[in-house]
Model the fold of this input.
Amino acid sequence: MSISVVILAAGQGTRMKSTTPKVLHEISGKPMLFHAIDAAQQISDDITVVLYHQAERIQKQIEESYEGIIFHMQDAQKFPGTGGAMKGVNTRHSRTLILNGDMPLITKASLEALTSGSADINMSVIKLNDPSGYGRVIIDEHGNVQEIVEQKDCSEAQLLTQSVNAGIYAVNTELLERFIPQLDNNNAQSEYYLTDIVKMAVDESRVVHPVFVEEEEFKGVNSKLDLAHAEEIMQTRIRNEWMRQGVTMRLPQSIYIDCRATLEGECILENGVSIQGASRLKNSHIKANSVVEDAVIEDSSVGPMGRVRPNSVLKDTHIGNFVEVKKSTLNGVKAGHLSYLGDADIDEGTNIGAGTITCNYDGKNKYQTKIGKNVFIGSDTQLVAPLTIEDDVMIAAGSTITKDVAQGDLALSRTPMKTIKGFFYKFFGEK
Done:
């Protein structure tokens, strides 16, 4: 790879109105900055992230997920602005692509378009019907960029220009290394503008080529409203890709799929389904309004209104409405209604009756419940862990099981039924 990438992620993001750094706000299960890093890694082996605001927090989170990322700390007090962010940055390759960390929707195809050709600078340009708030890109009669003017510094004539700066540049590294030290802050905001390198290049009769791009990919995320719009776009992309790969979706716009999730074979997702985290589904049917979180589901059905929580594995299993599974492995199991199965290992042929609870927590510690093959557990049963129920066992409905049950046995724990004749009328009186 002959492209270096610099990702600008130093801004405070005050419009986000959050204590979380702007670039760490998640879109489809991943911080928006990570989406930019993922795109960059598809075209480059030399990636630098520029940090300032909450730098340690951002760097720590990046290092937990990526290797080989270079970090540069902006001296924002002395050198504010995008141009200031580039001061002191060194890159390895002959061409450097400068991205913004708040553009999570950018794609590999767009980055390749920006880095192609022989122009000294390629810059991203969007045509907008309403360009308010954006720097204007002035293009000459030869189709090359003449200059970029920030809105606050525009003349009345320049404000009429619809071509705006999308904020991404691919620059010959030799030029970048020479131009960045020459930047000054003689402008309305007293900031160092990266856009000034365009004028420097033009003044040297260098070629600055506009690359017209889609607004969807290059629009920055600066507020919670922007975040919601970006999420909608990302989700549409994710759903469309999985449907192209053969996944059936009923009312797809009501379905959420994390960008880390994988679906294989013939999967069906009904309306209101949420697939979260790095869940893996294979040949499974997730029914309406069910939630799957960081779980593995193979040849199984869930719901409607089922919930499979992290570290759970379901194989050849059916869990029905209002059944919750947490940190459990179910292999060939049926649990049709209204049950909680936590910290459990349940083997094939076992039927879990309605209202069954594995009592896995004593207030201090979590305990395991192990259930063997061909076990029938009656409705409204409490299984108090730690507990082992061997193969071919029956548990009578309404039982609270506190001791292990051996193979082939029936276990029941019931207070003998007692009837008080005529108590209703004594309590409420005669009709």
About this structure: The chain is about 20% helix and 30% strand. The chain has a mean pLDDT of 95.
